Task: structure prediction
Amino acid sequence: MTDEFSRIARYFAPLAGEEGLGLANDAAVLKPPPGRELVLTVDQMLEGVHFLSGDDPALIARKLLRRNLSDLAAMGAVPMGYLLTTALPAGLEESWLAGFSAGLAEDQKLYGICLYGGDSSSARRDISLSATLLGHVAPGAGLSRGGAKPGDEIWVTGTIGDAALGLKARLGELTDPTGYLTRRSLLPEPRVGLSLAGIASAAIDVSDGLLQDLGHICRQSGAGAVIAADAVPVSEQAAAFGPDMLEARLTDGDDYELIVTVPPDRVAALKAACGALAITRIGHMVAGEGVEVRDPAGATLRFGKAGWQHF
Amino acid sequence: MTDEFSRIARYFAPLAGEEGLGLANDAAVLKPPPGRELVLTVDQMLEGVHFLSGDDPALIARKLLRRNLSDLAAMGAVPMGYLLTTALPAGLEESWLAGFSAGLAEDQKLYGICLYGGDSSSARRDISLSATLLGHVAPGAGLSRGGAKPGDEIWVTGTIGDAALGLKARLGELTDPTGYLTRRSLLPEPRVGLSLAGIASAAIDVSDGLLQDLGHICRQSGAGAVIAADAVPVSEQAAAFGPDMLEARLTDGDDYELIVTVPPDRVAALKAACGALAITRIGHMVAGEGVEVRDPAGATLRFGKAGWQHF
Result:
């Protein structure tokens, strides 16, 4: 590999916005958008934890940005730019960095964000990456996990469970003839750009599993949730694997769809805000605590876990 | 170890400022200080690269914050708060996390900053940490590496080379009877709080080695630098190792002192701004490029490297 400063100049300086000062200073300087609040989020992508060692570096880069973009989407924020850390083992091919920076460039363009700055390091063994993403919202308009009330309806965007099946396909545990599930796992579509302020009472993105993430809304809102197992939207490709996959669908993460709670009288507004994006009602909030999953006969289903945790 | 959410609640939620929303949301919401620009920086601390596997977790935490604080100091910014990422191997003792969060708490108090949010993950092997620190400056007042002009004097704060010797002491390569050099390596003192706007023409912190970091000022300013080897300030403890350590002193990093360039007519203001903090003139900027080091007889000294690079 070329030296650290040449690599920064070649692969990262072209990605920098003017706030990044050409990546030639100790820090970036940002004029905050007047009259707006800033929204800040950070996510990691680690070799052997969040991606497989042979994965395409461009897709790793794009998923790193998209996981963060999904967090901003769950807050109702408009994305602006990001800081990046890379820790790369010495033996890594230069082509990895070329692919990685090309992936960043592609999604920067797609989502209208730029690179503010970062830190590059060598790593002893595994690749370790993080991105800190900044966005903005109107004052007081940021969505939270804590505003859901009993009686609110629970809706989700898109389909749930594709990414977990896509990971199994990538590991050779099942076949994915169309490649759709694999793509859902490698390249999620963060639901940025929905104007949910004043509509949603709470929101979160599905990163750790539907039950666990909905559980966060319950805990922060001081309420419970009842959902219908057969209402959870499933893609055609995932449905082909039959009902055995229900637990995986509800407890595996990485879909980056949004769970949104909404008072019944704002459902029409929610649908209008989502436009062409499919959105499905899966249940409603109740007094109490925790998430209850019911089968079509109304019986409560129990699962061994709620979702993905680190350790 | 306890589960991820219990750990966040126990060790990290108490560190959160109100912007962190109790660490219970997808992102933090920050009201930017009115009429100020934001300054953003990020740094990593990786096991086996930036710290040794057995190092005290409280000191690792504090150095993580201090390396970032030093970047803000070099921009002349006032620190506000940070986002944190942790990636920890499954076998790590809970006491490590207790020590780590106690170290964060101590330096948060010392530097008046708070935790905004973060991301925690498991790691396959090595501990991997990063912090993204936010600060603010008056509009246009952020210091840069690019403003030095021929004729400007070059000054450095504190003493140079202690941290490199301290690392050697920690590795058992030399003795450090007072522990001073070891402390300088483990717990640098970022020079935040100096009001250098309108005084310094350029600034950078010494993280990768005096020659390399001064070289960044030269490159960004389109000028050269001449420094006197024997003018570089050395602590009593480092001086005890004699002149053989000159190259290490000039090319090893981790001191987190500031290099400041200043027009001669602002030297008095620089001294006043530094107050009780020792500051030493080591040379001056010239037309040309690169850093020239001269011995007391005026001969040019040559070194094998300028400073630390990753790979």
In short: Chain A has two domains: 4-137, 153-301.
